[in-house]
Structure formats: C-alpha cells, structure tokens
C-alpha cells in the first residue's frame, strides 16, 4: 500500500540526497523494531527507516557505528570493483547537509540506504546448504572486521550479552516478586542457578584476557543475511547491534535460532529436539571463514556460546515473567514462562548431545 499521502514520511525522505523524484512509498519487510519503507524514485529504490529511539537511545552513536563498519567493509572489498562493493554492503545515503540521519519536528529519527534489489532472505533455515551459507556469511563478516579497532565503536546496547548483568536482573526480579510468581517457578530457578557458574565461562575468559574483544553482529538470525537469486550469500544486514563483543556470542545466537526443531515459544517441550545436520553445516560454513583469524581459545569458546545464548535468553524471558511481562510482547498470560521452558529444554538437549556437538566443532575447526 502506498504511503505517498503521509506528509511526515515524504517530508522526512525529502531531506536525503536521493536521485530523482519520489513516485512511491510503501511499507517494507517484517522487522519489529524500526519502521521500514521502500522509497521508489523514477531512477532508484531506497530503504527508508524510522529508528526506534526508545531502544536505540544513542542514535548518533548508532549511526556512527554503522558508518565506521560500512566504510571498513567497502575498503576491504574495493579491489573487487564498484559493482561488487555496492552489492555486498549496505550504502548509507546522507542528508543534503551531509548528516547520517534526519530528526523530524516530532523527534523522529530517520535514515536511508540504497535498496539492494534482487535479493531475498529466509526467516527459517530449512536446508543444510542454507545453514552453511549463513555460517559462511557471519564468519566472513567477522573476518572482514577482525582488524578494525573495537574502541572505534560505541557499545550501543551496554551489557547486552553480559550474563552477570542478566542474572543480577533476575535476582532483583526474584526479590521484588512484582507479579507474585516466584513460588510457581522455583524448580526453574533451581535449574538456572545450578548452571550459572558454567555460563560465566566466556565472560571470565574475556575478563582474564584469554579472548580478544572483536566487532560482532549480535543479532545473527538467518534473515539478517541477504541471498542472491541463486541462494548465494550477498550481504549481511541489520547492523544496529554491531558493537564490541566476543565471537562466541554471535556463534551461539545463530545456533540457538537454527538448531531448534520447534518454535521459540513451543508449549510442548517434547517437540524440542536438536537438528544436528544444520548445526554441522553452520559450523562448517562459519569456520571456513573465521578460522583465518580466530585464536585457539576463541575456537574453544564457541561451544560455550552454544550453551550460553539459549540459557541467557531463558533468563531474560523468566525475568520479564517475574516482573509482570513489561518488556517482551506476549499473546497470553504465561507466554514468557512458555518461552523460558522452551529455551531451557534446548539447553537440556544440548547437554545430552554435548560430546557430539564438541566433536563436530573440533572437526570443523581442523578441516
């Protein structure tokens, strides 16, 4: 549906240095954070977004991060030629004043990219070939940024993958017991607290200097990889959460989203099993690129990330449940509790298959 009559969108878009006259504006994509539109002129199409500054409060830092990362990626790819660069990376369109974003009179923050035509993405990994492509894409992304100084980027979401921070929030939720739900989840709390120390492994390795701080994506869902018409990797997108971190966080979050045979909020936990072939394919794709720069201890940390990310997501769901469901959108009263149990069942399944997962990772690293 065209949004050409929306004066705020049109007015905001007119502040950017685009080619041609706008002939169509329509909603685009299925993202839940930013409002996204396709702006079509008589010569080109653009991706136009209203940034959710309730989540990304430091818009200036966010956009500077994006520029630094994109500039670095474009330099890395420059020897392939202009066409390859434009297809393989996002391209920011500045305002007429040369700024990275525009702030409208209602304190809305807008940005614009060239729309990459002829690409597609998938919400769910269905084949081993797709899993391999996803692993390769994020491995290459990390590799391309491995020589960029992390201090040049702002930590746009502080403590995002800090398990100590997440556990502190859970303990506060237990103490406050705002929704009066603590007693009904004591068995779940026991399970979580029993595994807390193990889940601190990556954080401790980082604090001890065993893991280098890298620039990581921090939202490694498969639909953040654009593929061409032949299902080949073209570009990694959604750079809002790119910031300093440890590589195992990206690896673990990707595995969390592809290895589960059921939905994230599957109420029947018996349906939650591991898709081992997809794990193997992703690991092989990732290490085919990432082993060019990973240290030995970083490769060791990958398996810890596989366990940590579903565990940490369970902690976040449970914290919200105890707080009365104030953060995540829910569709029924126990939705966050169901999500918690599903994530912890995934952890249990991983524990049952730990030796097999470790063997696959070791084999992938040593190829």
UniProtKB/TrEMBL annotation:
UniProt xrefs under Pfam families: APH
Gene3D superfamilies: 3.90.1200.10
InterPro entries referenced in this protein's UniProt entry, alphabetically: Aminoglycoside_PTrfase, Kinase-like_dom_sf, Pseudomonas-type_ThrB
Domain (Aminoglycoside phosphotransferase) ranges: 25-268
UniProt-recorded name of the protein: Aminoglycoside phosphotransferase family protein
Species name: Sphingobacterium chuzhouense
Classification of source organism: Bacteria, Pseudomonadati, Bacteroidota, Sphingobacteriia, Sphingobacteriales
């Amino acid at each position: 549906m065209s949004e050409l009559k929306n004066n705020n969108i049109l007015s905001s878009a007119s502040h950017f240095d685009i080619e041609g006259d706008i002939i169509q504006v329509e909603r685009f994509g299925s993202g839940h954070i930013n409002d996204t539109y396709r702006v079509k002129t008589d010569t080109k199409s653009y991706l136009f977004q209203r940034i959710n500054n309730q989540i990304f409060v430091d818009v200036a830092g966010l956009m500077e991060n994006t520029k630094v990362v994109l500039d670095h990626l474009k330099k890395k790819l420059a020897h392939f030629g202009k066409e390859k660069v434009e297809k393989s990376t996002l391209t920011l369109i500045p305002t007429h004043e040369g700024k990275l974003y525009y702030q409208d009179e209602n304190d809305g923050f807008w940005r614009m990219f060239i729309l990459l035509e002829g690409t597609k993405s998938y919400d769910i990994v269905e084949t081993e070939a797709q899993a391999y492509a996803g692993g390769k894409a994020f491995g290459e992304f990390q590799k391309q940024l491995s020589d960029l100084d992390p201090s040049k980027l702002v930590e746009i979401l502080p403590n995002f993958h800090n398990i100590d921070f997440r556990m502190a929030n859970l303990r506060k939720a237990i103490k406050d017991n705002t929704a009066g739900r603590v007693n009904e989840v004591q068995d779940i709390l026991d399970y979580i607290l029993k595994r807390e120390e193990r889940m601190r492994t990556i954080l401790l390795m980082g604090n001890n200097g065993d893991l280098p701080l890298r620039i990581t994506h921090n939202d490694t869902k498969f639909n953040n990889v654009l593929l061409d018409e032949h299902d080949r990797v073209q570009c990694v997108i959604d750079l809002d959460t790119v910031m300093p971190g440890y590589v195992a966080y990206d690896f673990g979050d990707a595995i969390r989203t592809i290895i589960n045979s059921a939905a994230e909020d599957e109420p029947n936990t018996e349906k939650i099993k591991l898709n081992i072939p997809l794990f193997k394919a992703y690991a092989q794709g990732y290490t085919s690129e990432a082993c060019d720069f990973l240290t030995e201890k970083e490769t060791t940390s990958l398996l810890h990330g596989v366990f940590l990310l579903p565990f940490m997501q369970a902690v976040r769901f449970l914290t919200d449940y105890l707080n009365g469901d104030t953060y995540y959108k829910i569709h029924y009263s126990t939705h966050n509790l169901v999500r918690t149990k599903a994530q912890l069942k995934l952890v249990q399944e991983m524990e049952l298959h730990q030796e097999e997962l470790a063997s696959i990772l070791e084999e992938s690293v040593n190829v």
